[in-house]
Structures are given as C-alpha cells and as structure tokens.
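User: For documentation purposes, I need each entry recorded in a consistent format: the amino acid sequence on its own, followed directly by the corresponding structure tokens. There are two entries in this batch. Please keep commentary to a minimum and don't merge the entries.

Assistant: Recorded as requested. Entry 1:
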Amino acid sequence: MHLNPYGEDAVNLAADLVNRPPADAVELADRCRAAGLVVDRPATSADLDRARAALRAWERVVDATDEHERAESVNRMLEEAAAYPRMTDHAGSGWHLHYRDDRKPLGDVLFSLISVGTALHLTGRGMHRLRRCAVTECDMAFADTSRTGRQRYCSQLCANRDAVRRHRARDHGKGAASMYKGKSSSSVRKSITGSV
C-alpha cells in the first residue's frame, strides 16, 4: 500500500527549501532526492527558477494574515500548477496517485507537489498549520505537523532559546520587585532616578 506522498512531506520539503534556498539546480535535485522525490532527469536552471517561483508563492501562503487570504494564495498556486490526478508506477515501487504528468520537468513537479501538498496539509490538519517561528529574530517557516496543532517554533533550539529568555525576564522582574519591597514610593523614585 502506498500512502499519499502529498501533504506533510511536501510542506516539509517546501519549508526546507525556503529556509535554506538551494544554490543551484544540482543542489535542488539532490535535496529533492534526499526528501524521497524521484528525480529521473538532470535538473536545469529553468527548474531552479520554477522552484523558486513555487517557493515565493508558498511563502505568501505561510505569511497570509487570515484563512481566506491563505486559501486564496493556495488556490492561485493550484491554478498555476493545474494537472489532473493520475495513477502511476513510475519508480517501479507500486501504484500510487500523482497530481501531475510524470513527464514534467523538476520545477513543474515541485510546483504541483507543493501546491497540492499544501492544500491537503491545510484542509486536513487545519488552516493555521503553516507559520513563521515565534522567536523574534528567527524568520524560519515551518509546517506544524504536531499532534496538538500548537507548534510555535521552527525547532527545539528556538523553543529552548525562547524558554530561557522568558525565564530570565521573569527572574529579572522578581529581582527588581524584591529590591524595592518595603520602601516608600519616594525612596523608590530616588533610587530609580538617582536623585537624593
């Protein structure tokens, strides 16, 4: 049995390519293969350009401010990548569905894969399940594939960084409050302003 390759794998590949853009067509093909995509012909600069267009469109989906804007952005991608679904055994690994022609070049394949995968991910898991990392200085995009649908960070590293920051802010606030505990408001004002 083949599970549908669209959805989680497609949005994770899109996030990876957006967050670490491939330098050239060879790297694009290598990273697609590493993600499990069958790449049966050499990638070209046209494939890289088409993939970049798909990724720019996908970032508009990620950065949409509400569900309707997000849906409209996905629908524009689907329209541009339109192809009818078909059964295929192109890799000799068993019959499965593709939402594209197997003879398409890699750039077009990625556009279709990312478009359909994003639509399936959002409709199946929730329209809020694409976002940017909650850490202010991190702008990484990610697909929330968590069980609860509450993922806020692109990685455990960013989650830990933010937790440490919040902890230090709480401790700093507690320290300042205890320093002035029991003092009159005029003596607190004098110690803050430095006046005597």
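Entry 2:
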Amino acid sequence: MRSYDAVDLAILAALADDPRATVAALAESLHMSRNTIHARLGQLEAAGAFLDFDRCLNPQFLGHPLTAFLEVEVRQKDLARIVQEVGRIPEVVQVYGRSGTADLRVQVVCKDTDHLFRIDAAILEIDGVDRTETSLAMGELIPYRLRPLIEKVRRAL
C-alpha cells in the first residue's frame, strides 16, 4: 500500500467533490501547479487509488432499473471456477466473497423481475452452485462515497 500525504488527500477530496475536474481546474482550486497535480494524479493512479470508470455509470440509462443481491452458496472446491462463470453474466456488476452462510454476494442489475428470474436461474445452473437467496434493492439510501473517509484521514494527519 502506497503512503499518501496531505497533497494527495486534498486532490482526492477535490475529485470526490467533482470527479470530472480537469488538471487545470484542480490546480486552480488547490493553488498548486498543473505539473504537481498531473504528477500526483499519475502516482495516485499507479498506486491503485482510482476505481474503474464503470462505477460512475448508471445502469438505469442502459435499461436496467432494478438492482438485486443474490446470496450464493457454492461447493468451496469449485469456487474459482464458479466465480469465473458468474463473471460471464453481463448483468452481474459486482461479486464479493463472504464469510457466513452464503459464500458469494452477487449484485445484479436487471430490466424487470422476469429478467431477474432468468439471471438467478443462470447462476443456479452453474455446476457447484447449491442455492441462491435473492433480495431486491428498494432504493439506494447512501450512495457510494468516500468523501467522509477522506476527511477523517485528513484530520488524522
């Protein structure tokens, strides 16, 4: 894990506020040179500070307004292969390995409940998947964010 300093955190906080900010805009708002911002952005990117752009896209725009979570129980010895097969399903947007009764938490987006039913069936057809439990997301109450965490880390410096 790369270490970071107050300059890095200031840049990250500014990007949390305006992810589309240009290097020039960041330099102006942070009172730093463009070269400094550009170099720091490169270092942050190389260190893995940024996630894929996909996370910023709205699946509703693509005709997939429903989000659901599938808790999936699998045969442990087949986990790697099962994850690969689940990853081939385009509507699967994220998968977490879990502790507890379910082995995977699979987030999917779908057009409607019939579409969700077909996605669930496709996952259940994978050899080694024992069962799924599905729940619909009723609404996003706290959107993905890191700004509060960035501020807490900045205060601790």
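Summary note for entry 2:
Helices lie at 6-17, 23-30, 34-46, 79-87, 113-124, 147-156.
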